[in-house]
From TrEMBL:
Coiled-coil regions listed: none
Pathway: Carbohydrate degradation; glycolysis; D-glyceraldehyde 3-phosphate and glycerone phosphate from D-glucose: step 3/4
Name of the molecule in the record: ATP-dependent 6-phosphofructokinase
Regulation: Allosterically activated by ADP and other diphosphonucleosides, and allosterically inhibited by phosphoenolpyruvate.
Known role: Catalyzes the phosphorylation of D-fructose 6-phosphate to fructose 1,6-bisphosphate by ATP, the first committing step of glycolysis.
Gene that this sequence comes from: pfkA
Domain Phosphofructokinase, residue spans: 5-275
Name of a matching Pfam family: PFK
Family that this chain belongs to: Belongs to the phosphofructokinase type A (PFKA) family. ATP-dependent PFK group I subfamily. Prokaryotic clade 'B1' sub-subfamily.
Amino acid sequence: MLKSIAVMTSGGDSPGMNACARAVVRTALYEGVEVWGINNGYHGLLDEDMFKMERKDVGDIIQRGGTFLGTARCKRWEKPEGRMQGYKNLVDRGIQGLVVIGGDGSLRGASLLSKETGIPIVGLPGTIDNDVWGSDYTIGCDTAANTIIDAINKLRDTASAHRRCIVLEVMGHRCGWLAMTAGIAGGAEYILVPEEEYDLDAICADMAKAYKAGKRYILVVVAEGAGSGQEIGKYIAEHTNIDTRVSVLGHIQRGGSPTVIDRVKASQLGEQAALAIISGLSDIVFGFNKGHVVSINLHDAVNNKKTLDPEYAHLARVLF
Ligand code: ATP
């Protein structure tokens, strides 16, 4: 049994990180284990910016987006010397295990720390991208998808009024989950994702035909990794004569009060992570598979690339 653990959030923030950290802290305290909060991700670990937490430190945060611990991207962590310093800062305080809530980069950093020092590490997938291998869910993806749906609903109104084509660029450099899920839920005509090739000329020809037949509007959702929304919009306007507008959603997708799904799932993952690390388990990531909490090997999670669910891709084609 470990007697003292720490928790941090790292990488891009995501709605539900607070609910998750809260669950880690309260589970540890419930089990009689000391718990430290590390501010600003790996930066805080290197700068010794950490504090012993009490129950009240995680009060009034479950409903908030962002992360009360702060988060950062930290270059120093990418070097072995940096990670050794972080390890020393943990050991100096008697901290025996670390829970890292973050995206694939943060989990990669955690995986290296565990390999190099042997300190117990449990990772939790905190990113809106839903791109962590082995889990069909990451903390914050549901809130982000709902934010996109809200934008789609509004854009659809104005597109329909003016008979326009709207190109909506959403987040997702290497993973099209957000675009695909929100596109399906929002009834988009075309969904462009980094995992699939597309033929813009064929799409333009299709669009022109549909407009001739009386279609009032067209909605294209494009993940940023599949191309620039601005350039795709320009190409469509030039090749179809359809009045086209582009909207780039940007960081609005990261913020906002987490949905019920993100709060509950983040809490479940946080509880499991705390229980696992307290009992001495290491090198695992907790995620979800078909609605159930599952544990995934940490090194497998960071060394494999998640692929797009073929059923989603098929559904998008059928419903178009
Ligand atoms: P998101 O998916 O939301 O962008 P992320 O966790 O993937 O979140 P990154 O910027 O990739 O965000 O990683 C966060 C931090 O994790 C980095 O700033 C760095 O400190 C650490 N990290 C990332 N990749 C590595 C690596 N290969 N080796 C060591 N540390 C890493």
